Amino acid sequence: MAKKAKKQQQSGGTPATVALTAAGAAFTVHAYEHDPAHPSYGEEAAEAMGVSPDRVFKTLVADVDGQLTVAVVPVAGQLDLKALAAAVGGKRATMADPALAERTTGYVRGGISPLGQRKKLRTVIDASAEQHATICVSAGRRGLEVELSAQDLAALTDAVLAPVGRA
């Protein structure tokens, strides 16, 4: 890790924001007070930031034919597991064990970011992200979101864009 990235991480940055800074990507960090009693991390983020839920995307970890795969879908909808499997050439997808997702990504549930993961996983971003100039995803902890273009997110995560979300 570069000196600048280490310094930022020590001063409160997350692996996601460190990765964005190191890549020279344009992004904005949004912090809000996380309410542990809120029933949905993503909806809470949208409400706290005053952003439409179709622009706030949740990061989900699934198991596709034995390989962990990240799906980034709008918080207003759900992940279509069949579509996710098809998007990566797989046959069957199930949601990953939450403890395994946390260990593999290095983030806690509700704060898993598609960026700066401990182990880089293949990633699929719902194609609806392209309808927006910017989208928001977790910045690596509950109460912290990062706003960036879907194109930058796809480039930084080597993601495929595919219709994997449903209303």
Describe this structure in words.
- The longest helix has 9 residues, at 15-23.
- The chain is globular and about 40 Å long.
- β2 and β3 (67-74) form a beta hairpin.
- Helices cover 29% and strands 28% of the residues.
- The chain has helices at residues 3-10, 15-23, 41-49, 81-87, 98-105, 150-157; strands at 28-31, 57-64, 67-74, 78-79, 93-95, 122-126, 135-141, 144-148, 160-162, 165-166.
- It has 167 residues and is an alpha+beta fold.
- The strands form three sheets. It has a five-stranded mixed sheet. A three-stranded antiparallel sheet has the order 1-8-7.
Structural class computed from helices and strand pairing = alpha+beta
The DSSP helix count reads 6
Radius of gyration: 15 Å
- Overall geometry: globular
Taking all residues together, what is the mean pLDDT?
91
Return the string of H and E elements.
Answer: HHEHEEEHEHEEEHEE
Q: What does the main sheet amount to?
A: 5 strands, mixed
Q: What's the total count of β strands?
A: 10
Low-confidence stretches: 1-11
For the largest sheet, list the strands in their spatial order.
Answer: 5-2-3-6-9
How much of the polypeptide forms β-strand, as a percent range? 25-35%
Helical residue percent?
25-40%
Gap between N and C termini: 39 Å
